[in-house]
Specification:
Number of helices: 15
Number of strands: 12
CATH class of the largest domain: Alpha Beta
CATH topology of the largest domain: Aspartate Aminotransferase, domain 2
Bound molecules: pyridoxal-5'-phosphate
Structural class: alpha/beta
Radius of gyration: 26 Å
Number of domains: 3
């Protein structure tokens, strides 16, 4: 990595800006606030532009290449979403304005709640949670509040399948419930026998991800929901994988009681680097009164003379606020733009193409890469990236080598029940040529793994950095340029 910091580019008296002559009377500055020596970099304008343009290009993004990061749904984000989110009527309003003055924004939120309800089959939706994990916490708190409102205080056990995303046990634990892990069966579905064994009068509910994190549609979903309901529990749906289901399957119809959406996955809003996201929660009518407050309601439908009127209401037994103001409104504008641009048939096309693309790559590589649960996949699939005749090779080596081919690596080592997992999610927005180029790269890498493993161990060789200490990179993140020692003294 040769990129210099802005401080290293600095030379005394080189200047990027010139201050205009003052057009107000000069005044004495308060002495206490002045410093003798302010270590600012001294760099001319063109060098500043080049410096920041060059470092911005070190980032990999969906806008410069294929990003098959399973579970994250890194689809292309249409630029019209950004334009609508910046419209002054959406961007320049304040959350404390009286509702009469922000009817357009409330109308957009109301319509988004309606669209999400229609897509999922749920009767009521809150847009408040800030991301998927936050939606899970909200949903689990609603399940708790439901049992408590019935005086059913023994129900403290939440079942979480062993294939679940780590946020599922984390959000249950945060809400104060006790977590019991549930095994998957040989087909990668919820094991109904194991589930039945846990069904008793302490059962608060179960968290089900469908399609699950193996990219498989859970064939036992109806029976699993029925079993849990028969024993007085409720079913939480992790809706992060809705990209496979739009227009095809409505989770509420198979018995799920409460579910979050990831607007920043399924509905094309930017994510990565920790946000901002949006994790709306949908519920059946039995749970609507527990939703976080406020929800947007249409209090008058309007007629030919008067537009509809929207207001913010507090549901009767609300669990309270889970986020300041109204959630991440700018993300909701982007997601709503995406939905209305595509319409009903367009959304159906999203999911059918997402599933087709994943199956296409799976079919192209499955004779070389072991697929532990070989079924038709949904929008993503998981391979076990290891071979007996390539002993020193791990999934991580394959991922690092993909960087040399210009691709972002897939998700590594998740789900935990597959050793050396590579989780590949192409999304619907890629061309056949890109899918083929990626499959070709995977096949070539498998060949190198057996015949020339050092190429993989040394990869990546054409990236700005080689291999990181990944733990240090995650735990000791440095997000700003550090001032060199003794700089400017
Ligand atoms: C991404 C994801 C989550 C968490 O969503 P965030 O928005 O990242 O908090 C939960 N479950 C699954 C299956 C996911 O893929």
């Amino acid at each position: 990595m040769t990129e210099k910091t802005i401080f290293e580019l600095s030379r005394p008296n080189r200047k990027g800006i010139r201050f205009p002559a003052p057009d107000v009377p000069l005044a004495e500055l308060p002495k206490d606030f002045l410093r003798e020596n302010l270590p600012l970099p001294e760099v001319p304008e063109n060098e500043v532009v080049r410096h920041f343009t060059n470092i911005s290009q070190l980032n990999y993004s969906v806008d410069n290449g294929f990003y098959p990061l399973g579970s994250c749904t890194m689809k292309y984000n249409p630029k019209i979403n950004e334009e609508t989110a910046r419209l002054p009527g959406f961007a320049h309003i304040h959350p404390l304005q009286p509702v009469e003055t922000v009817q357009g924004a409330l109308g957009l939120m109301y319509e988004t709640q309606q669209w999400l309800g229609e897509i999922s089959g749920f009767d009521a939706v809150s847009l408040q949670p800030a991301a998927g994990a936050h939606g899970e916490l909200t949903g689990v708190l609603i399940i708790r509040a439901y049992h408590e409102s019935r005086g059913d205080t023994k129900r403290t056990k939440m079942l979480v399948p062993d294939s679940a995303h780590g946020t599922n046990p984390a959000s249950s634990a945060m809400s104060g419930l006790e977590i019991v892990q549930l095994a998957s069966d040989k087909q990668g579905n919820i094991d109904l026998k194991a589930l039945e064994a846990e069904c008793d009068d302490t059962l608060a509910g179960i968290m089900i991800t469908n399609p699950n994190t193996l990219g498989l549609f859970d064939e036992n979903i109806v029976e699993a929901c029925q079993l849990v309901h028969d024993h007085g529990g409720l079913v939480y749906g992790d809706g992060a994988n809705m990209n496979a289901l739009l227009g095809v399957y409505r989770p509420a119809e198979t018995g799920i009681d409460v579910m979050h959406f990831n607007l920043h996955k399924t509905f094309s809003t930017p994510h990565g680097g920790g946000g901002p996201g949006s994790g709306p929660v949908g519920v059946t009518k039995e749970l609507a009164e527990f939703l976080p407050s406020p929800v947007v309601a249409m209090t008058s439908e309007g007629d030919e003379q008067n537009p509809a009127f929207y207001d913010l209401l507090v549901p009767e037994k609300s669990i309270g606020r889970v986020k300041s103001f109204h959630g991440h409104f700018g993300i909701v504008v982007r997601a709503f733009t995406y939905m209305i641009c595509l319409g009903k048939n367009g959304l159906l096309g999203v999911s059918t193409h997402a599933v087709l693309n994943a199956n296409y790559i799976q079919a192209r590589v499955k004779d070389v890469y072991h697929i532990p649960y070989e079924r038709l996949c949904m929008h993503e699939f998981v391979t076990e990236a290891k071979w007996e005749d390539a002993p020193g090779i791990r999934a991580l080596d394959i991922s690092k080598r993909l960087i040399d081919f210009g691709f972002h690596p897939p998700t590594n080592y998740f789900p935990l029940i597959v050793h050396e997992a590579l989780m590949i999610e192409p999304t619907e927005t890629e061309t056949m040529e890109t899918l083929d180029a990626f499959a070709d790269a995977l096949l070539q890498i498998a060949d190198e793994a057996k015949n020339n493993p050092d190429i993989l161990h040394n990869a990546p060789t054409n990236a700005p950095f080689g291999r990181f200490d990944e733990v240090k990179a995650a735990k000791d993140l440095i997000l700003r340029t550090q001032l060199p020692e003794n700089y400017g003294s």
